[in-house]
Amino acid sequence: MLPRGRPRALGAAALLLLLLLLLIGFFLLGWDPECERLEPDGRAGDLGCSRCPLTPRVPSDGRLRGASALHGDPLAGHGVHNHSACNPQPPLPPKCELLHVAIVCAGYNSSREVITLVKSMLFYRRNPLHLHLVTDTVARNILETLFRTWMVPALGPQISWIPNKHYSGLYGLMKLVLPGVLPPGLTRVIVLDTDVTFASDIAELWALFAHFSDKQVIGLVENQSDWYLGNLWKNHRPWPALGRGFNTGVILLLLDQLRQVGWEQMWKLTARRELLTLTATSLADQDIFNAVIKERPELLQPLPCVWNLQLSDHTLAERCYSEAADLKVIHWNSPKKVRVKNKHAEFFRNFYLTFLGYDGNLLRRELFGCPSQPPPEAEQLQRALAQLDEEDACFEFRQQRLTVHRVHITFLPHKPPPPRPHDVTLVAQLSMDRLQMLEALCRHWPGPMSLALYLTDAEAQQFLHFVEASPVLSARQDVAYHVVYREGPLYPVNQLRNVALAQALTPYVFLSDIDFLPAYSLYDYLRASIEQLELGGRRKAALVVPAFETLRYRFSFPSSKAELLALLDAGSLYTFRYHEWPQGHAPTDYARWREAQAPYRVQWAADYEPYVVVPRDCPRYDPRFVGFGWNKVAHIVELDAQEFELLVLPEAFTIHLPHAPSLDISRFRSSSAYRDCLQALKEEFHQDLSRRYGAAALKYLTALQQPRSPA
User: Where is the signal peptide (predicted)?
Assistant: First the structure.
């Protein structure tokens, strides 16, 4: 028989086990005592958080773990309170509500950074976005072109009066004046730095406006370093801030209420007072925002730390998250950017690189269920594409011609040449497999260049690193590189030429190809020839630069016409493509050029395609010619139809270097269907010439009388 006390002991153990199981269950289900409150009738009521997070990964008050224990609560005693440990999740905005985002962007580098930011926003977003871009002239020129082909608007006021030494430059202060420069009817906006990357839907961030009280007008995440505590190094004197201060890489602004409280006067008075003892801002607008919040903490709504995970040199960001699912916005707020070192640097770097190389064409998707009026050019494009016959053997040629490519002009920092009346820009286009030509070209041509590169998003970054690693290329600030992002199966050669031609800034252009090296003296010789021939008036002339080629990969480049003729006689050089396509350059009359001492005029002939120097406002290339064949021939026909003289220069020359054949020329050689499509494009081109020039276009029919091997 069991002792009397045993059942009682077993019952107590069972009760303890039950309580333990209940506690484990409550933890797994996300129970939190702070998720309950008492209703007036004494019943437990829900705060509206429905269920707390499964694990207490992210402090919902937006502050770093342990911050208050280390340094005291910076908001204590100021009437500002953070959210409870289980903050109610505000509802997302309606599916088709327009979300407004303001981005300050200045200069070439920021114009590249903003693309990665926009990609990350578009990837996750479920709402239509309106971007308010506050730019300088450089960024505006770049982004207007980019967003015209990517359908995003632009805006550009400026400010310049507050001394500033922040690495982002003067435009690091523009966020202070946004309530005054953004449209008066705009009531709320998310403000972003260009060096942030989204890991979540921006609508979740927009939803946090619901937490603002009547007095709160600015939403910020706490600064995730000890910068404002002033203890990073000896004699470090930061601007005043509340505790650790707050970072302005991500801001929520209630614009109408900021205007009502006199924000402009408020921050200017604070800045002027602090500048009496502090000679400049160190962290641009962030210093001034923090100084104002120090005085007026009731204006602030703290945001959860995951909405601005700051990867600075002294970051404490690892206190904010415990797994990747916590992340919402990653902020590269160090001058080192992705090279900054921190605990999980490789993870964050790979996340950023994913968007950096992501094909932006894939983000042109519409939002289902949210009808919007496309721009007129988009409607015209859709109508033109709808008229194409997919059963047409030449469908891909016609589709490629209509393709609108994203274009990023001046992809790298560029210093425009000073205005000179006879200056010449070399214009060319290339793809990734011709990058190796750039250094040699820069050595041969000391003047300005405008080059269009046909690249994927990932290749554009490889190109950037290629230039940065090259002492020759990185030293040249007068070379403008324009990235045209790849789309479609055929090489859009004439579209690329038109992009490079449109961005030339000098009165004249030398229309070349990337696999040609000009004579070392050609740049100076062309400028002198333009002046001597008095081409600045009404005289319309195309100056022909005779083309040659070598079949040798190792080749001693001639320094003069005499040396070139010696190499020609020795069989080391040839007139360009005389074996395969003699009619392409025969009208140049190389025999006459050997003896010429002065420029001489030649007549247009069928299939003539010389390399020429023309005024910048010359006719554009015909975009219907994609892939290989007749792309330059058609342009010379257009010049002749517009009565340009063809003048051969006696001391000029350019030499083609050998290389592997392109994919398009291989297709041309192997496919009769490809050649048939090219012939069809020629016939359509001549029909268009006849409509524009009438009887004067009849002579060009000879170019179509018999199919030949086009260049």
Answer: 1-30
